[in-house]
TrEMBL record, chains A, B:
Catalyzes the NADPH-dependent formation of L-aspartate-semialdehyde (L-ASA) by the reductive dephosphorylation of L-aspartyl-4-phosphate. Its EC number is 1.2.1.11. It comes from Pseudolactococcus raffinolactis. It catalyses: L-aspartate 4-semialdehyde + phosphate + NADP(+) = 4-phospho-L-aspartate + NADPH + H(+). SMART domains: Semialdhyde_dh (SM00859). GO terms for molecular function: aspartate-semialdehyde dehydrogenase activity; NAD binding; NADP binding; protein dimerization activity. Phosphate binds at residue 101. GO terms for biological process: 'de novo' L-methionine biosynthetic process; diaminopimelate biosynthetic process; isoleucine biosynthetic process; lysine biosynthetic process via diaminopimelate; threonine biosynthetic process. Belongs to the aspartate-semialdehyde dehydrogenase family. NADP(+) binds at residues 13-16, 41-42, 160-161, 327. Keywords: Amino-acid biosynthesis, Diaminopimelate biosynthesis, Lysine biosynthesis, Methionine biosynthesis, NADP, Oxidoreductase, Threonine biosynthesis. This is Aspartate-semialdehyde dehydrogenase.
C-alpha cells in the first residue's frame, strides 16, 4: 500500500487557506491526517476537514515534526520564517507567497506548464502569483506551437486577492454607496489598494491601478511579479512582459486583457485548437453567441477560461485575448494542492537531506 | 452686440442629455433660449435650465425652425432621421451618436486636438465615442512631439455609457448581491452588455468584455470605434490601434490602460511635461505618493486625468499609462458643448446652404 500523508495548511483561517482545505477534501492525494496552523490569535479555532473537527494550532518552529506536505499561505513573512523549519523537519513545502518565488533553488510551478521543474526541488516549491498562473495556462499552449516574443497585459483583479479583510472592506463600501447614498469618493478605506502602503482608497465603483506597493521603476511589485515569474516559469528570459495591474470591484476571479506577439505567425483557429487541447484551459469563444469568459462564471471553478481571441488589426504576429480564472482556486489554493498531487505522482514527496534555506 | 443663440438638446431626458443641460448652464456660449426635445413618451415633462422651467417637446421633422445649435444625444437612429432636418432648418448640429462619425462630410472633433477640422463643417459635427475622446486628450500632446506609431488599449468602462437604464440595472443587481445574498452569476440582466443584443449578463461583481455588438472581425463596434475614430481625429490612417473594451461595475468615469509606441524615443519626463501643458489634460502621476487617476475622483470633472506613465520594460519606444475621464462629461456632454463653444468662437455657427445629408 502506498504511503498516506500528513498534510499541514499554514494560514488555514485565511481566504486562501480555507480554499486549500476544500481542495484537499476533493484531492486525489492519499491523506492520513490534515493539520491546520495559523497565528496564535486564531489558534484554538475549530475548522472541519471531511466533516471531522480539526483544532487550529499556532505555527511554531517545532510544528512540523511528522508532516509530509506543508501548504503555506499566511504571508511572505511567515513563509520566510517557518518554511525552512518545515523542510528541516522532513516536509515538502508548497509556498503560496512571493517569498521564495525567485529563489534559484526553488521551482516555481504551474503543473500544466512546467511540472518537470519539480524534479529538482530542494524542499520548497513556490506557487506563482495568481495573475501570472492563469496567464501561463492560457499562453503555454500558444508558446509551445508558435513561440512567444512579448506579452502586454492589463488585469482586472478581484479584491479577494488582497485577503479576507479586503473582501469585507469592499462589501462594506458598496453597501455604504447603494444603501446609504455615500458618494463613492467619500467612502473611507483602510486596506486597499495595498494593506502595507501609506494611503488607502475606495474600491467601490472604482478601478485602482495599484496592486501591491510600487517598485523603483514605477511598476508595482504585482506587475513585476508577472514579468519575472513568466520568464522563470517559461524558462525564457527573452520573453518581453509588461503588465498594468488593476483592482476592480469584483470579489472572485481575475480577468486579464492579454496581447501577445508570437515568434511564428499563429492562425487563430490553430490557437483556439491549442488552447482547447491544453489541460486546465477551457476555450469560451463565440462572438456570434456572445460567448466569452466572465468572472462570475469562472468563480468556483479550477479551470482557466480563454476567449475573445483575435488577430491584432495591424501586427501580423499579434493576438489579443481575454483570460479569466478563480484567483483563489487556480490562482492559489488549487494550484498549490495540484503541485502537491503532482509531487506525489512523481514520487517527489520526500525529506530533503541538504538544507538550502536559512533558519531564522 | 454679438448674436445670442437658440440651443436645442435632443434626447434631453437621457443620461447624457441631462449633463448637456448642466454644461450649457455654465457655458460661455451666449444663449438666448434653450429648447428640449425627446420622444413623445417624455414630451410634456418639465426640466429646468438656470432655474427656469422648460417643457420637453417631441422631436419632429419640423422641430428645428429658429434653432441655431442642436445638440443630439438620443441614439443613432434619431440623429440619422432628424439631424438633416435640423441642418436644413439652418441649425448647426453637434451629434453625440456614432451615426455620422465616419462620414467624410462630417468633422469628428475633440476641440483640444483638432478644432481646425470644424472650419470645413457642413452643418453636422460629430462628437467622438467617449472612450476615444479621453484617449485623444492624453495622446495628442505625445503625438505632437514624438509621433505615434501604435496604440494598444484595454478599457475599464462605466455603465453610464450604456445609458440611464444600465445605471439602474447595475444598482439593482448590486443591491441583490449585497443585500439579498443572490449569487452574482444568478442575477438577472436585461440591458448590459448591449441593449440591442440577444443575451444579457450581470455586471455586478463582473467584468464584461463586450461593449456594443460584435462586428464581423470579432472586435466589437466599440473597439472598432476607437480604431477608426483615432485615425480620423489624428488625421493619420497609419496609426495602428487595437482595443479591448470592457465594462466594469463603475457608474461614472472610464479608465483606460493605454500602451503606445512613439515614432521617436520619448523621455518620460518630457511626456509628462507635454501632458501637463496640454489643455484639458491633468497629470496625476506620483507613485511615491500613490498618486494616479481614479474613476471616483474624475467623476464630475471635465478634464482627462493621466498617470502611471512609464517606459515599457523592453520596447525602447513603448510607453504605458492610465487615462481616466468622466464619460458623460468630456466623453459626451462637455465635449459636445465645448464643440458648440468652439464653433461660436470661430464664427462657424451658421446655416448651411448646400445640404449634404439625406432627408429620410
Amino acid at each position: 500500500m502506498s504511503k498516506e500523508y500528513v498534510v499541514a495548511v499554514v494560514g488555514a483561517t485565511g481566504a486562501v487557506g480555507s480554499r486549500m482545505i476544500e481542495m484537499l477534501e476533493s484531492s486525489t492525494l492519499p491523506i492520513k491526517q490534515v493539520r491546520l496552523f495559523a497565528t496564535i490569535r486564531s489558534a484554538g479555532k475549530v475548522l472541519t476537514f471531511k466533516g471531522q473537527d480539526i483544532t487550529v494550532e499556532e505555527t511554531t518552529e517545532n510544528s512540523f515534526e511528522g508532516i509530509d506536505i506543508a501548504l503555506f499561505s499566511a504571508g511572505g513573512g511567515v513563509s520566510a520564517k517557518f518554511a525552512p523549519y518545515a523542510v528541516k523537519a522532513g516536509a515538502v513545502v508548497v509556498d503560496n507567497t512571493s517569498n521564495f518565488r525567485m529563489n534559484p533553488d526553488v521551482p516555481l510551478v504551474v503543473p500544466e506548464v512546467n511540472a518537470h521543474a519539480l524534479d529538482a526541488h530542494n524542499g520548497i516549491i513556490a506557487c506563482p502569483n495568481c495573475s501570472t498562473i492563469q496567464m501561463m495556462v492560457a499562453l503555454e499552449p500558444i508558446r509551445q506551437q508558435f513561440g512567444l516574443e512579448r506579452i502586454i497585459v492589463s488585469t482586472y483583479q478581484a479584491v479577494s486577492g488582497a485577503g479576507a479583510k479586503a473582501i469585507a472592506e469592499t462589501e462594506r463600501e458598496i453597501k455604504e454607496v447603494v444603501n446609504d447614498q455615500v458618494d463613492p469618493k467619500d467612502v473611507k478605506a483602510d486596506i486597499l489598494p495595498a494593506g502595507g502602503d501609506k494611503k488607502h482608497y475606495p474600491i467601490a465603483f472604482n478601478a485602482l491601478p495599484q496592486i501591491d506597493v510600487f517598485t523603483d521603476n514605477d511598476y508595482t511589485y504585482e506587475e513585476m511579479k508577472m514579468t519575472n515569474e513568466t520568464k522563470k516559469i517559461m524558462e525564457d528570459d527573452s520573453i518581453a512582459v509588461s503588465a498594468t495591474c488593476v483592482r476592480i470591484p469584483v470579489i472572485l476571479a481575475h480577468s486579464e486583457s492579454v496581447y501577445i506577439e508570437t515568434k511564428e505567425v499563429a492562425p487563430i483557429d490553430q490557437v483556439k485548437a491549442a488552447i482547447s487541447a491544453f489541460p486546465g484551459a477551457v476555450l469560451e469563444d463565440d462572438p456570434s453567441q456572445q460567448i466569452y469568459p466572465q468572472a462570475v462564471n469562472a468563480a468556483g471553478h479550477r479551470e482557466t477560461f480563454v476567449g475573445r481571441i483575435r488577430k491584432d488589426l495591424d501586427a501580423e504576429k499579434g493576438i489579443h485575448m481575454w483570460v479569466v480564472s478563480d484567483n483563489l482556486l487556480k490562482g492559489a489554493a488549487w494550484n498549490s494542492v495540484q503541485i502537491a498531487e503532482t509531487l506525489h505522482e512523481r514520487g517527489l514527496v520526500r525529506a530533503t537531506e541538504d538544507l538550502k534555506f536559512e533558519l531564522k
